[in-house]
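INFO batch 0412 | record 1 of 1 | parsing
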Amino acid sequence: MKNYNLSLNQFFPVPGKTDENKQFILEKINAEAERGADIVCFPEACLTGYMVSHTAGYTADYASVHTGSCSAGCAAGIAVRSDDASVTEICAAAEEKNVVVSFGFLETCGNQFYISHMITGHGETVCYRKTHLGSREKGVFAPGDRLVIYQAGDLKIGVCLCWESHIPDIAAYYRERGIQLLLVPYASGMRGERCREFWRVHLPARASDNGIYAAACNGLITRSGEKGCGLALFDPKGNEIASYYEENEMSVMCRIGGTLPREREEDMKHISYFDHRRPELYRS
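INFO prediction complete | emitting tokens
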């Protein structure tokens, strides 16, 4: 696998302020490309902001924006189409700056709403619709019906959103199809040490079980009065090699690449456990 500079970005996407969020994303793409980034990753629903209750209002005041209450009416007020100008501008910026950009938005399509995430750049664009919805999301959003893989050159990326990282089958599906990097964008109210402890349970497992990099980035949103945050990268052995768990806008640049376990001569230090599975025993 070639070496790539991965930029993980944490900021506060204000629900309903799509133009402002888009401008921040565009500026950050420019800045991170100048710093040498090859891949620029943003949080779940960062373009539109994550959903809020009708009573919260659309404001940058952390104390008054919460994600614990959902409604279809609220989703309708902030969701955009996948071909909206704000989406296509970000895709165009990725091409102009010659980087891969990963960003999310609440999507409207027909009479359905989705939590969608796009990976774009180098002439390739894929859009993933969250397939496994959280309890607060069911009844508001429709689940996506397929997993998608971004590929440009030798780089293959899979994506799962927030609590989908708890479902091992998603990462295994992607690994079976050759991904090297799993992106896990969040819109979670988990803060600081709680986020660190939470991520260090399952994200290293997704990485080490499959011999892939797993990268997570959270939005600075609030839930139940807590300000969510977190950026982290785990290597193919499950080691945390970069992280940031403070409540400020932040970009963390880290390097991925080199020889993956699947590419090594087998020994007990560099074994590819994924390749030793016997799926005929545990697949119906």
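INFO post-check: The chain has one domain: 4-281.
INFO record closed
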